């Protein structure tokens, strides 16, 4: 995978070169696109950013201001952009260490640098084929298909849909590079909670592990994943998290015999719409009645310590633990852990001719996931939009 300014791609069809296991034949790529959610970087950015996030839902500014308090408490700055800068730098360093000189671009869906601008800049530079990796790792509309839609719509908006090809690495929820940092973090958090209990004279206090992820509408959860597979709880999104949690527990002897559960956070939207439950704070509130004295909170659904981790877990969930007298510790996200960064580069190399890695490692029976999303995977229940990087893609297909 070396820098090269290619001619116009011979084909934009994401179905070309895909085998029966959903693996795409390796290609030459001119650059890597790190795609993320984005976040405000000052008090004046907060409401415009939230308008971008909720565009089309008709949510008034007074409602947005309720969410804005989370950002305003942090100076109006979401940590996600700085974390993405750090991740971009870490990727560049790991690529350089391996002797790979492919440039890394960075674009956001909801704040500068916007994906649309990055695509135009890439084309103007002379790049014709990009390989995208996102900071959302599980299968659902918001964490996969919406990225594919944003790329599709922005390629159309810039007139680059037949000029610039963007492929996407597989969802990497159970890649060892993502999972192993959690194993390390949960082991450390267990030790810390046991230290807290020992200081209280409760060395034998019962501990429970809460694996937390972003709640999504139940209908979206049930639409996640390909239509030709069955999943636990009828949802690829839920099944992937449960499989990861089991894989982590199985790798930590110190966690043997401990109770654990998958919980949800950061719910938004109409209270009349069913969303995945239980909420993490509701789950914590039920622990004392079960005799639990200590809690390990694992941000299993997240790549970095962005606002929903810092507010919903480090503030609200930890406050709930304190009010109930529970010993508690929150495990870290992968961030720029060297195992995670190396794993991302491995994922990129899976798809390239140069420096190719043919193996597709996965720590759960659900993976490895597909290089090219299957037809109808993670359907948009609010109406189909142009997409890239899927078997049902509409943008760039000749």
From TrEMBL:
Coiled coil: none
EC numbers, comma separated: 4.99.1.9
Residues that coordinate or bind Fe-coproporphyrin III: 78, 147
Catalytic activity: Fe-coproporphyrin III + 2 H(+) = coproporphyrin III + Fe(2+)
CDD domains on file: Ferrochelatase_C, Ferrochelatase_N
Annotated compartments: Cytoplasm
SUPFAM superfamilies: Chelatase
An example Gene Ontology molecular-function term: lyase activity
Domain of life of the organism encoding this protein: Bacteria
Pathway: Porphyrin-containing compound metabolism; protoheme biosynthesis
Keyword Disulfide bond: no
Transmembrane segments: none
Group of enzyme by EC: lyase
Pfam families the UniProt entry points to: Ferrochelatase (PF00762)
Region of interest (Disordered), ranges: 1-22
Binding sites annotated in the UniProt record for Fe(2+): 214, 308
Predominant location category: cytoplasm
Key words of the record: Cytoplasm, Heme biosynthesis, Iron, Lyase, Metal-binding, Porphyrin biosynthesis
Positions with biased composition (Basic and acidic residues): 13-22
Gene3D superfamilies given in the database record: 3.40.50.1400
Family label: Belongs to the ferrochelatase family.
Biological role: Involved in coproporphyrin-dependent heme b biosynthesis. Catalyzes the insertion of ferrous iron into coproporphyrin III to form Fe-coproporphyrin III.
UniProt name for this protein: Coproporphyrin III ferrochelatase
Source organism (scientific name): Arthrobacter gengyunqii
Lineage: Bacteria, Bacillati, Actinomycetota, Actinomycetes, Micrococcales
């Amino acid at each position: 995978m070396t820098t090269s300014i290619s001619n116009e791609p011979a084909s934009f069809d994401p179905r070309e070169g895909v085998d029966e296991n959903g693996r795409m034949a390796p290609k030459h790529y001119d650059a890597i696109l790190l795609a993320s959610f984005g976040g405000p970087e000052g008090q004046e950015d907060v409401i415009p950013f939230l308008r971008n996030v909720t565009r089309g839902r008709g949510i008034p500014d007074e409602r947005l201001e309720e969410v804005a308090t989370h950002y305003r408490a942090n100076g109006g700055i979401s940590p996600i952009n700085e974390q993405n800068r750090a991740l971009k730098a870490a990727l560049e360093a790991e690529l350089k260490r391996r002797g790979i000189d492919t440039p890394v671009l960075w674009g956001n869906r909801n704040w500068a640098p916007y994906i649309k601008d990055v695509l135009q800049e890439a084309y103007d530079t002379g790049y014709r084929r990009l390989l995208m990796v996102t900071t959302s790792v599980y299968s659902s509309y918001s964490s996969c298909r919406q990225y594919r839609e944003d790329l599709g719509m922005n390629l159309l908006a810039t007139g680059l849909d037949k000029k610039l090809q963007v492929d996407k690495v597989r969802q990497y929820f159970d890649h060892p590079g993502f999972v192993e940092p959690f194993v390390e973090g949960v082991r450390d958090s267990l030790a810390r909670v046991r230290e807290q209990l020992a200081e209280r004279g409760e060395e034998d206090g019962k501990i429970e592990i809460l694996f937390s992820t972003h709640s999504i509408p139940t209908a979206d959860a049930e639409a996640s994943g390909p239509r030709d597979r069955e999943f636990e709880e009828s949802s690829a999104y839920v099944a992937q998290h449960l499989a990861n949690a089991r894989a982590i527990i199985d790798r930590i002897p110190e966690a043997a015999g401990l109770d654990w559960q998958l919980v949800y956070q950061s719910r938004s939207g109409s209270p009349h719409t069913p969303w995945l439950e239980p909420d993490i704070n509701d789950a914590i509130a039920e622990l004392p009645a079960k005799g639990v004295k200590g809690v390990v909170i694992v941000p299993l659904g997240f790549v970095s310590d962005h606002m929903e981790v810092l507010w919903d877990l480090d503030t609200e969930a930890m406050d709930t633990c304190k009010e109930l007298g529970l010993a508690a510790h929150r495990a870290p996200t992968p961030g720029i852990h060297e195992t995670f960064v190396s794993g991302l580069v491995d994922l990129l190399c899976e798809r390239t001719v140069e420096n190719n890695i043919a193996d597709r490692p996965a720590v759960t029976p659900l993976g490895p996931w597909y290089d090219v999303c299957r037809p109808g995977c993670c359907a948009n229940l609010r109406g189909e939009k142009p997409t890239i990087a899927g078997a049902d893609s509409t943008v760039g297909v000749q």
